[in-house]
Design brief:
heterodimer; A: Cytochrome C Oxidase, Chain A; 68% helix; B: mainly alpha; Four Helix Bundle (Hemerythrin (Met), subunit A)
Chain lengths: 537, 214
């Protein structure tokens, strides 16, 4: 493509027109399109969560019937997992950042990348149709035998999940090939930013685990339509086999969610501490370690399913291994901050929130991995609190940190730092009000997925609900100032944070081909010590 | 977006044709890995239920026609050979020959499906259907419908892959006809070959597992 020689040209304004967006193969535009789509579904899923919390304010059924309540939490879970959090960081931020950070012009298969977005939209239509047709009430885990007998529209939801799987596979496949084949000259594996290592490890899981989910939902569809019988105990089948299949994907999937978040945190902590990352290789390989271990722990979701006790012991033991690479990362991040020159900009506030919340989420995961403790806590609010601390306190905090960090790069404008910090405070406080309470509820025996509860739990439930409003208010502030900044924000410089990775060497927003001149690797991604000294001299 | 140079089809974000071909190959191998895992779920289901109901599996498998199954195995292996020969021909710029081999491959794939159709038809007739539609009486052992659930799921999914392969290779034939490939650029032909060999390979596992239980 021949571009006119104007400095003002960037990927957002060239070429122009809706059609140029809908048919684009530019990874940056596809990233932005993904960002818009996941934001929409995050808003829908978030509003469903507020409906659930409002209903739970009192033990009575205020405005939802019990069936509607079941549908609400199922849709909240299914939308947040399959339509928001799985594609969130890789497909939205990753698509935008990955090729630029390794100095490539695009991902390896740009058309496949665009196809992945359309497949995502197509799959989401099936999910939305299933809501319209008769919202699924099985919980997002779709356990048999209930999911093969309920009268809600499981089949269209399953088709949606099956189709969404392809979009996830295509993103992962594209990233692996891009990282292997399209790194700029001099960009060796150990010169890659840790974000790339995180995305690479994620992509491996996407490629290896998602097909198993695909066959699982196909079998569930066949179970409902043809009465296959392989998950039906009355026909000689085994419903627990479904759980094995489901978690063989869905446990690694939680690392699809968290690993790219960990990549973002590595970038944020190094940049805003102005210090070389501590333990680069340890962080890089712990990502691969987590990806590997993720495939060996799935049955820890099934300690109460009646699986053999010996298997449960093995899986419990293996589960503790996940703690090692996760712990390595947290210690390395803290060590990076130690004696760094820390700048508490909004992205860094989210990174610190991540460190705190993810540590709580991770440590409570160790409680749950211990067999005897899990028997007591299984299917209580303790679980709900645990995975919200890792998924929301972990992944979403990282996503928000990354979004603020790369916002100036993506849109060429600065958001309001003041309101950014205010919103972060609301989100952090609201999150802890909502979910820390649920740890307490869980240990006192409040089961998850119940539309009502004993009166003694009301104060804690009420407090949790108020927390969810605080949390929602934080997101509202964020939506306002981010949208406001698109037109009215200060023009961003190429490198507003003083970071050293490739994306900050190109203009904000970047040129349609990412770089006007092919970038050269002159220093490592976190060589703040040497580069800052050189700049001073 | 991409500047297609006529000979190598090089897209602008690749440095050279070799890099582009390498990337395509790696991508295809990754796709094949996802295919293996997709079938992997079914192989696990097979293993579990065969372990649970070994006698029923043995009794039920006797209703599969080994002759037809073996014929289909030979048909698919032959089609893999012609596919490989098609790639060899295009590497040597023998386009006419390449096209002929591709056509033979498609014909053999169709033969496979026709034979499969007769096998299915026979089972439909006897009522050896999956799950709740199973009406056949005469197989000893518990839950014989499970065997046919798994048989139809595995061979059905494989059959869809054969149909996909026919579509892919037919598209290649039209492209070869329009002189799209040469020894300088034949990546799609090679990709189709990788895919087709995998489809063949999966059948080579399905055949003994389903037809040759002893």
């Amino acid at each position: 493509m021949n571009l006119p020689n104007e400095a003002k040209i960037n990927y957002l304004n060239y070429p122009k027109g809706l059609k140029s967006w809908l048919l684009t193969v530019d990874h940056k535009r596809i990233g932005v399109m993904y960002l818009a789509a996941i934001t929409l579904f995050f808003a829908i899923g978030g509003l469903l969560a507020l409906v659930i919390r409002t209903e739970l304010f009192t033990p009575d059924n205020m405005f939802l019937t019990k069936k509607m309540y079941n549908q609400m939490f199922t849709l909240h879970g299914a939308i947040m997992i399959f339509l928001f959090i799985i594609p969130s960081i890789p497909a939205a931020l990753g698509n935008f950042i990955l090729p630029i950070q390794i100095g490539a012009k695009d991902v390896a298969f740009p058309r496949l990348n665009l196809a992945s977005w359309y497949i995502y939209v197509f799959g989401s239509l099936f999910c939305l149709y299933s809501i319209w047709e008769g919202a699924v009430d099985t919980g997002w885990t779709f356990y048999t035998p209930y999911s093969s007998t309920t009268d809600t529209s499981v089949v269209s939801m399953m088709l949606g999940v099956f189709i969404l799987g392809f979009s996830s596979i295509f993103t992962g496949l594209n990233f692996i090939v891009t990282v292997h084949k399209l790194r700029a000259p001099g960009m060796t594996w150990y010169k890659m930013p840790l974000m790339i290592w995180g995305l690479y490890a994620t992509a491996i899981i996407q490629v290896l685990a998602t097909p198993v989910l695909g066959i699982t939902v196909v079998l569930l569809i066949l179970e409902r339509t043809l009465g296959m019988g392989i998950f039906d105990p009355a026909m000689g089948g085994d419903p627990v086999l479904f759980q094995h299949f489901f978690w063989f994907y869905s446990h690694p999937a939680v690392y699809i969610m968290i690993l790219p978040g960990m990549g973002i945190i590595s970038e944020l902590i190094a940049t805003f501490s102005h210090k070389k990352i501590f333990g680069y290789k340890a962080i890089a390989f712990s990502s691969l370690g987590i990806a590997f271990t993720s495939f060996l722990v799935w049955a820890h979701h099934m300690f109460t399913s009646g699986q053999s006790e010996f298997a449960a012991m093995i899986f419990s033991f293996l589960t503790f291994f996940v703690g090692i690479p996760s712990g390595i990362k947290v210690f390395n991040w803290v060590a990076t901050m130690y004696k760094g020159s820390i700048d508490l900009k909004t992205p860094m506030l989210y990174a610190i929130s991540f460190l705190i919340l993810f540590s709580v989420g991770g440590l409570t995961g160790i409680f749950l991995g211990a067999l005897s403790v899990d028997i007591h806590l299984h299917d209580t609010y303790f679980i709900v609190a645990h995975f919200h601390y890792t998924m929301m306190g972990g992944t979403v905090m990282a996503l928000l940190g990354g979004l603020h960090y790369w916002w100036p790069k993506m849109f060429g404008r600065m958001y309001s730092e003041f309101w950014g910090r205010i919103a972060c405070a609301f989100i952090f406080i609201g999150f802890n009000m909502t979910f820390f309470t649920q740890f307490i509820l869980g240990t006192r025996g409040m089961p998850r997925r119940y539309a009502t509860y004993m009166d003694q739990f009301q104060p804690l439930h009420g407090f949790s609900s108020i927390g969810s409003y605080v949390l929602g208010f934080g997101f509202l502030i964020m939506a306002i100032y981010l949208i406001h900044s698109l037109r009215n924000g200060k023009i961003a410089s190429a490198n507003p944070w003083g970071a050293l990775t490739f994306e900050w060497e190109t203009t904000s927003p970047p040129h349609p081909h990412n770089f006007e001149h092919e970038p050269k690797v002159t220093h490592g991604p976190y060589d703040f010590d040497t580069v800052l000294r050189e700049r001073e001299e | 977006m991409s500047n297609h140079s006529p000979s190598t089809n090089l897209q602008s974000h690749f440095a050279d044709a070799a890099q582009q071909a390498d990337a395509a190959k790696l991508g295809m191998w990754l796709f094949l890995v996802t295919e293996i895992l997709l079938f992997g779920g079914l192989f696990v289901a097979y293993a579990i239920y065969r372990a649970w109901y070994p006698e029923m599996f043995f009794n039920a498998h006797e209703y599969l026609d080994i002759t037809l199954g073996a014929t289909n195995t030979v048909v698919l292996i032959t089609s893999s050979v012609t596919m490989a020969l098609a790639i060899r021909s295009i590497q040597l710029d023998k386009k006419k020959q390449c096209m002929n081999y591709l056509i033979i491959t498609v014909v053999l794939a169709c033969v496979f499906l026709v034979i499969k159709y007769f096998e299915y038809e026979h089972k439909f007739h006897l009522g050896q259907l999956p799950g709740k539609f199973y009406t056949f009486e005469g197989i000893e052992g518990t839950n014989p419908h499970i065997f046919f659930s798994i048989y139809f799921a595995m061979t059905g999914l494989h059959g869809f892959h054969v149909i996909g392969g026919i579509g892919f290779i037919t598209w290649l034939i039209t492209r070869v006809k329009r002189n799209a490939f040469s020894s300088a650029y034949y990546t799609p032909v090679e990709m189709a070959g990788l895919y087709w060999h995998l489809v063949d390979l999966i059948w080579i596992f399905l055949f003994p597992l389903l037809y040759l239980i002893s």
